[in-house]
Amino acid sequence: MSEKRKKIYRALVDGATEGLSDKGLYEFVVKRCRKASSKKIVRAAVLALTDPDVTDRHVLSTIYALAIKHRMDEIGRGDVEQDDGENAHPRPALSRKRVKKERDPSVSLASPAAP
Prior knowledge:
This protein has five helices and no strands. The protein is mostly helical and 115 residues long. It starts with a helix and ends in a 29-residue tail after the last helix.
């Protein structure tokens, strides 16, 4: 695990332990780790969720909520709306025409006779 991810992980756990959540926790992490992006925070949150040493249910649920929120932000609203509208106007399926290949008359399909 990289040192940057460990630092973000520690900031997440420390902030959640202090009672911070949502925007407050995000701002706390960014203040302690200036180069923390949403993607890095989500990865560090998954690390915290799988850590057997973190057992406080409130801390885990706070970190989980932050990870889900920022993961959904990465997906973006445009993608979700596009997925919903895709089924309303389906595109016609592209079809391929099979082309029958001409056989060479000199080639026999029968198995060769035993000598």
